[in-house]
Design goal:
7 helices; binds adenosine-5'-diphosphate; binds magnesium ion; alpha/beta; 10 strands; 6-stranded mixed beta sheet; 4-stranded antiparallel beta sheet; 228 residues; globular
Length: 228
């Protein structure tokens, strides 16, 4: 089991009110799975993503990632987990505008202390893996939305994370670019990457092999969901 969420609750405190957002969320994901978490706006998807991504802590419940008890880690250890175990992909790409595609992709390797020559080689290989070997020296403004998202996916993969975690990865893309991103996720999953994709779009969710739905902070799943 690569990911194990047990009885996760998340409350936000607003003034004197406690707003329950995640309610008894349980989820197990095996290595190599491709899971979509689907739900409408406001259902708690980003809150759940932040917990899975070790960007926020649950109010209660337990979370194990690759056999590590995430609850017991301090901030520095959580930053390590985010750097090495999780590849993040966001709706709005989150690329640094002044940097080339190569330097954007190499950034996690800088934080990992990889030397410059190796960084360039590995970043180039990651860009080749997403089909952008001819755009290495381009800056984000010189790339289409779909290309930007492929750069972001290369950056997410460059440290060889345990899971690829994507929040609305096609939310800002046209249908053609969305299709390319979905093909890329499929290819990475075929190569053994564990993919967890969050979306409000059922057409996008159906690219995953398994669909879990979230509604008003509660997770549910139909047995044996398959895309075919
Ligand atoms: P989704 O990503 O599915 O649209 P979110 O996880 O962003 O949903 O939000 C779920 C609910 O939690 C919403 O009702 C939202 O208003 C509330 N919420 C999210 N973040 C906060 C916060 N920092 N403080 C208070 N309420 C929040
Ligand atoms: Mg959201």
């Amino acid at each position: 089991m690569i990911l194990k969420l047990e009885h996760i609750y998340k409350d936000y405190i607003q003034g004197k009110m406690t707003v329950p957002v995640l309610k008894d969320v349980c989820l197990n994901v095996e290595k190599g799975e491709y899971v979509a978490i689907m739900g409408p706006s406001g259902s708690g998807k980003s809150t759940l993503m932040n917990i899975v991504g070790c960007l926020d802590r649950p109010t209660s419940g337990s979370y194990e990632l690759s056999g590590r008890d995430i609850q017991s880690l301090n901030e520095k250890q959580l930053a390590e987990v985010r750097l090495h175990s999780i590849g993040f992909v966001f709706q709005n790409f989150q690329l640094l505008p002044r940097m080339t595609a190569l330097d954007n992709v190499a950034l996690p390797l800088v934080y990992s202390g990889v030397r410059k020559k190796t960084r360039r080689e590995q970043a180039k290989a990651a860009l080749t893996r997403v089909g952008l070997e001819d755009r290495v020296m381009f800056k984000p403004t010189q790339l289409s939305g779909g290309q930007k998202q492929r750069v972001a996916i290369a950056r997410a993969m460059v440290n060889r994370p345990d899971i690829l975690l994507a929040d609305e990865p096609t939310g800002a893309l046209d249908s053609k670019s969305s299709k390319q991103v979905m093909e890329l996720f499929q290819k990475l999953n075929d190569e053994g990457v564990t993919v967890i994709m969050i979306t409000h779009d059922s057409g996008i969710a159906h690219h995953a092999k398994r669909i879990v739905t979230i509604f008003d902070g509660e997770l549910s799943e139909q047995e044996g969901t398959v895309s075919e």
